[in-house]
Structure formats: C-alpha cells, structure tokens
Amino acid sequence: MSAAKTTTSPKRLTDLLDPQFMARLDSLDVLSRKILQGKLQGERRSKRRGQSVEFADHRPYVAGDDVRFVDWNIYGRLEQLFLKLFLEEQDLTVHIVADASTSMSFGEPSKGLFIKKLTAALGYVSLVNNNRVTISFFTDGIKAQLANMRGRICLQQMAECLLTTEFDGLSKFDSACKQLAAGRIGSGVMIVLSDFLFKQGYDSGLRRLIGRQYDLYVIQVLSTQELSPDLSGDLKLIDIEDADAAEITMSAALAKYYKRNVTAYCNELKEFCAHRGLVYVLVSSADSVESLVLNYLRKIRLLR
Amino acid sequence: MEWLTPLTALYAAAVSVPLLLLLYFLKLKRREQIISSTLLWKRAVQDLQVNAPFQRLRRNILLLLQLLMLLTILFALARPILSLTTGPGQRYVLLIDRSASMNATDVKPTRLDVAKKQANVFVESLRSKAFFSLRERSDETMVIAFDSRAKVMCNFTADKRQLISAIDAIKTGDGNSSLAEAVVVARAFAQSPGVEQSIRSAEEPAQLVLFSDGQIHDLDQIVVGSDELSFHCIGESSENITITAMQARRSYEDPDEINVFAALANYATEAVTCDVQLSTNGDVQAVRSVTIPPSKTDSASDVAKPGKVTVNFTLLHAEAGVLEVRHLRSDILSCDDAAWAILSPPKRLSVLLVTGGNVVLESALKACPLARLDPCSPAGFDAMDHSVLSVEQPYDVIVLDNHLPAELSRCRYLVFGRPPDDIDVSVPQQLENQVIVDWRPKHPVLKYVNLTNLFAAKCYKMLLPRDAEVLAEFNESPALALVRRNGGVFLLAGFDVLQTNWPFEPSFVLFCYNAASFLGMQVGQNQQANLQVGEPIIVEGLPAETTAQIAGPGLSNRQIKANPAGSIRFPGTGRVGVYSLSIPDQVPKLFAVNLLDSQESNIEPLRQIVLSSRPIEAQQRPLSRSNLPLWPFLVGLALVLACLEWLVYNYRVRL
Prior knowledge:
The complex is a heterodimer of chains A (304) and B (655).
Chain A: H1 13-16, H2 19-25, E1 41-49, E2 55-60, H3 72-78, E3 82-90, E4 93-99, H4 111-128, E5 132-138, E6 142-149, H5 155-164, H6 173-182, E7 188-194, H7 203-209, E8 214-222, H8 224-227, E9 234-239, E10 245-249, H9 252-275, E11 279-284, H10 289-299
Parallel strand pairs in A: 4-5, 4-7, 7-8, 8-11
Antiparallel strand pairs in A: 1-3, 2-3, 5-6, 9-10
Helix pairs in contact in A: 4-5, 6-7
Chain B: E1 2-3, H1 6-25, E2 31-35, H2 39-51, H3 55-59, H4 61-77, E3 80-83, E4 91-97, H5 111-124, E5 140-146, E6 150-157, H6 160-168, H7 180-190, E7 207-212, E8 229-233, E9 241-250, E10 257-266, E11 272-280, E12 283-292, E13 296-297, E14 304-305, E15 307-316, E16 321-327, E17 338-343, E18 350-354, H8 359-366, E19 372-376, H9 378-383, H10 386-392, E20 397-401, E21 412-416, E22 430-439, E23 455-460, E24 469-474, E25 478-485, E26 488-493, H11 506-524, H12 526-529, E27 530-532, E28 537-539, E29 547-552, E30 555-561, E31 568-570, E32 577-582, E33 589-594, H13 598-601, E34 608-611, E35 614-617, E36 627-629, H14 631-654
Parallel strand pairs in B: 4-5, 4-7, 7-8, 18-19, 18-20, 20-21, 21-26, 27-33
Antiparallel strand pairs in B: 1-3, 3-36, 5-6, 9-10, 10-15, 11-12, 11-16, 13-14, 16-17, 22-23, 22-24, 24-25, 25-26, 28-31, 29-30, 29-32, 32-33, 34-35
Helix pairs in contact in B: 1-4, 4-14, 5-6
C-alpha cells in the first residue's frame, strides 16, 4: 500500500468540475424536503403567502389590504370583497460544510479532492439556481467560510475558495459545530462532508446542527485504504493528524476485525442519522463524483 | 534409545532456547505507516484481544513452531540412537592390525583405514547405558593396535567418543604382525575393571574382535576358546612385488668396489617385468629390468610360494653413503618397494697386539690386510693412557694374549687366555683336554672356519653372563664367546693358543682375519646401521648426557638424550627408510630400516586363519550398524517445521 499522498492539487475550477459535467449540472437544482422560509424572494415556494404567480387561496378583505389583490371577478358575482392570496416564492439557503482537517488529504485518490469536487458540484448547482450558498471548511473551528453567495456570478469566488483551501489541521468536530450553529444564517439545506472519523465522536457535534431550520445531509467520505486496507507485517500506524501511534501485527484476524469495525462504525452513524431524520450517505473517495451527483443524490432527492 | 552426546545438546539448549525466547520478546522493529486515523485500528486491536481468548497463543504459533524446530535440532545434536539389538552388555576387545601389510591400498584408502572405519562402525553399534533407559549395563570395549608389539590405545570403556578417538589415533607402521602379545595384553586387561571402575567383574570373558588381513606370523602360538575371537578380514588383492632381501658389501680385494645383492618376490599369479633401480645418495646408478615369475601353489602343502628373482649390481663407490634398491613398478603396498643399506667408507684396521711374545699370533695377524699392527708388551699396555684409548680410539682392535690388564678402556678386544675381570665372566677352574663339540658357522667371526679338529690341552672354564653370545663350545665350557660390557666388545677365547693344535689348522688364520674384521666392523657399527623395522637404533660410546637429534620417515628432528653410560637407544623405528642421527661435533650417523620380510610382504588376505589348529572363518559381510541413528530424521523434521513456519507466516501476512 502506498502512503497517502495528495494528487496534484487542482488549479482551476475546471479541474474540479469538467465542463461537460457542469453542463449536465445546469439542469439540476437543490431540493429540500422541508418547505423552508427564505430570506429573499426567489424561485422556491415558501410557506409564506406573498407575491408570485402561483394562486394559493382567497380570504375576505379587511381594511388595509392591498386593493390590487382584490379578486374583482368574485366581487362581480358575489358583491363581496375577497382578496387573492399567492404563494410566495423565496430563495433556499444551501450550506455546505466540508472537513478540512489533515486526515482528508489521505487516501488514493484523496478524500479531500473528492470533497472539493463534490462541494464544487453542489455549489455550482445551488448557485446556478439562485440559491443562497454558504460554504464552510472546518477543522477545530471554522477555517474558511464563504457566506451568502447567490447567482452564477459567485462561481469564481467559490472556485477560488475551493482551490485555495488546504487540508491542514486537527479536527474537532464538536467545537466546529458550535461555531456553525452560532453563526447560522437563515434556514435551508445543510450538507456535511467529512470522514466522520473523529476521536471525540461525532454525535454531540451533529446534535448541535440538528434543528427545524435545517434539512441536514450527512455525506461520509472514506478512502479505499480505510474501507479495505492492504497492510501486511508488523506495523506502527501513525495518525496523520495527532501522530498517535497504534502498533499492530497484521493478520487475517485483525483485518477481519478492522473491516467489521468499519462497517459497524458507518452503520452506527447511519442509525444515528436515521433516528434524527438526517439523510446519511456513505461514499468512497474512489467513486466518481459525476455518478454520485447525477444518480445517487437525485435518488435520495437532494437534487432534482 | 540412546544419546551419544546428551551433554552437548543440553549445553546448546541452555544457550539457544532462552536466546530464541529473548529474541522473540524483544520489541519488534515495526515499519511505520501513516494512516488517516488510528481510531478504527485501535478498536480493531481491542476487539481482537477481547474477542479472541486464544489469540495470544495464535499470535505465538510462530514462536511455537520455532521452538519445536529448535528442539528437534537440539535432539538431533544429542545424537539419539535407536538400538536394534537387545541383550545384556558385553565386553569387547578390538584388535586392530597395523602392520606393514595393512598399508596396502587394494581397498581405498588403505587397509588400515578400512579396518579403522569398520572398528568405528562396531563402536557406534555398541549399546551404552542410556540416559533415560532402564538397561543398567552397557557394552564396554577396549582398543589394542598391534604390529610386532601390542599397544593399548584405550582401556575398557563405554564412552564411544573416547573409543572412536582412540581408534582414529592408530597410526600406520611398517612392522610385521604378531598377535600373541596383543591377546596376552587383552586377557590381562580383561581382568581389570576398566576405566569406569564398574562392579562388573573380570570373570566376564571379553570377546576379541580382530580386524586384520590375516597375515599374522604367530597364529600357531595363540590359543583361543570357541567363539572367543571373531575375525574381520580386510583386503582383496594379493598382487604385490617386494624386495625381500638386500645386502651391500665391499669387496675383500678392492675396498672401493661394492657388491649389491637384492632379491625380489612376486606374489601375483602372473609373471611381472619391472625395472629395478640402484641409487646412491639419491643419484641413480643403474636400472635393470627383471622378469619375476608368478607365484605358484605348492601342490603338496597347498601353500602359495611367490616367484623370486635375484639381482646383482656392482659399482665403485669409495665414500660413505646410502644405497637404495627400488623396483619401479607401482603396486598396492609401497613400504616394501625399496630397501636401503648404509655404506661405510672403506677402512683398514689398526690392531694393537699385547703379548709377551707369541709368534703364531703375530704371524697370523700379519697375514691379515691391516693398516697397522703394533706389538706391545703387557707392561707397556698397562702404562698406556686408557682414557686416550677410550676417547681417541687409535686402535680398532686390541688383541690380549694371556694378559689381564689392570684397567680396561672402551675398545674392542680379542682375548686369548683368561678373560679379564670386570666383565661378569668368572673362571671357577681350569679344564684339560677339551675338544670342540659345536660352533656357529654362520656367525661372521666363524665364517669359513672349520673347528672340527680343534683340541685344547688346557683351557679356562668360563661362566658367562646371560647376554653373552656363545660362538663355539668345548665339551665342558664355552670355547669362544662374545661379551659386550662397559661400552667394550670382548671376543673371548678361553685358552692359550699355544696350548692347542689350532695354530696348525688353516682355520686359525681365517679366525684371526674374521675376528679382526668383525671387531673392526663394530667401530663403524656397520652391522647396526642396517636394521629391521622395530629394531632399536643403538649408539654407544658417547659422552654421558649427550643430546642428539634424530630425523627419519615420519620423524622431524626429535631430541634424544644419551644415558649416563653414554649410549643412545631409540626404539621408534616403526617406518621403513633412512634415519639420521645428528650428534654434536660428529658426522651424522645414518641408519637404514628395512622391512625385508617375505611373510609381511605377502599381503594376500586370508579368509580363514588357523589359531593353534582351530580354524576361524572371517565374517562374511563387512560390519554394518546394528543401531539406527535418529538425527537425520530429526533434521528432516526440523526442515519440515521450517517450511510449515514459512507457510504460516505467509498465510498470516497475506490473508
């Protein structure tokens, strides 16, 4: 097995998203299972009645209502004033939270590159559909954040952020989530991208993010080397982040127990998410981002 | 099951097993490997330890395999032996022939090596008291090597290593073989309790095991009980060409001329033509081709007689030197291919005649070809400085005619009349009218001498010491005797010549000539320079405590010391060849040691030997092990374990 090494870091957005893929992404949009309240008028239905072309209901006119929305046809038939109500269309906040700790640079291909590609794809879809996009990179706190981007115009900004962020730092998911929850803007879809291999645990952190305001997606990215390691001999395994060492003698039994542990860990996370109404996705860094985005994420109705 | 070297294995185990364990428990040098998180690995290791109660054992299966492998190797080191024979322990005496005929190379490398190998096989087949066995008695063995003498290599012991090293220490010799002494020694030792001092009594008879080619001189002198001796015959071929006799002497007429006589024998069944080479001091003088007829079986006695031929060489050589006669055909026994003789330089004798006036004696001596004949009166002889006579040796022979000197110098004497005192010859009385009854015509002194008519009117009755040689006897007393005493040689004639009819006999002059030349020979010790194998080299008349060096075949400058009487005796002439004795301030003395033994040169292996009319057949088959060494199996097992360990290691690493 080769040591974890980062593939040549992408220089341009097209390194992350190739143009054909981008073209196919144009037809997609981010979906939220909840109908959430946006901030600005947008292209999304909201609970709020407001101005749009979509008729919602009638209600009796009361003094002070805008006379422009009186349904004059009904007044002609019934001689009573009814006001036409429309569904208000508002924008959707898409918050992409990506892990930028050192461990993400591990894997062949590296988990970090995969996350960057996925972030770019999701960000692109969101920006193109005029959603309010926030991208946060966290390690032990928020390391980098691009907040409230809207429109295709922000693509360059997003690309710059993605291309310049380095995977470096100790992951402290709990404290990072505390900061995220505190600085939460609006409501919408939140997508958390990480390997979720946190020594302190992921549950308290995820609990902070769960709330009515957010539709939470948990995408766990693991490298092939983590899923089925190809190790042999007497080894001293060194944690890439905290240099913690584990001495193992590789054997068939140990490999079996490791695989069982990986499965159990992922299942635990999946169960945690299922209980709390979160959507959990496990992907390998060796999978293709295209098929994930175009097929799987549509299947679970994150995109349409 | 026996262990040949259990202690070695125990020592090795004491070192290697803790070492292996130590190595195993030393911290492994682990390869460092960077991974994204140790979280899951630590859990997996924990799971492994928690969920697998036998995991530690499984982890150590390699150690177990290594330990097993080490143990099998250690067991192999202890040389376990599975004994295939049963019965109580016995006592054996291995008699190994190391005589000249055992140097034959008809079986490779030599007969003696094969005999030693067979003896080793015999020893390895012995049953010893095992470490863990209940058998309380082990076989005990002693080793005797014999040629003309028996040598005890090892007393009774059950220690196989000691026995094998004793057998390996047997060196080849060129002596002839006589078994009687070895059997006597073996029986004497069989009475002793042996090295281990076991309570095993001496009444248990020891079994004699003989390794030989069967050519033993004195088989008819040995009596053995039935089944007491088992015989292993070694050797295949009898084809040998040998020099059975060789003599070199200077001509009487011309001292520069040397006549060399050699006899060759052929023991093969076909006639053989070979070259015979004569060399002096290593320079080839002559080569002559001879054809030796084949050996023939005498129809009457059914004994094979070798074909014989004689060769004569004549050469002129006026100096001292070593003569070598060698046949140039390579055969299976090399020690009898050559014979040597030491030539002394031609010499004329100086004789001192001490007499009160004896015309007969004086004229007889004058007739001999002497360099000098000095007559001297008895008073004049007594007045001489005897120490000068001893050291400088101006006279080769001193003739005492009816004179008893007060002091005797270290010389050679021809004594007529009463023998001197101090030489252990006593004269109790005088006898009258004695006639000769017997004499030794083959002795050099009496060569061509006919004493039939010798009559003595008066003579002295001589009581001789035991080592004296009697050359001729009157009816009541020895007439002529040879006595060696105090570094001197005395040829005693116990009568006055004028009291006999001898002066009128032609034999008197011959006797004077022979006696003078024989005694003169004793100066150069020419006689003693040509020896048979095993005969000691004796040099006398040296200053006391002289240190000399001897070199020869298989000897490199060994120091020997003269005894206080001034004589050097070196018995180690076990090999044929020329020995040289270097004495300070003297010309090195040379000695030729020859086999010249037709019976020893007959190397035909005998399948049956007859010991005092009891025939003993040789064992049909060569000895084979009667026990099974287990170490090859153990080593094989260790190899299998090593393979297994390799497989397990690979299985664990790969899967």
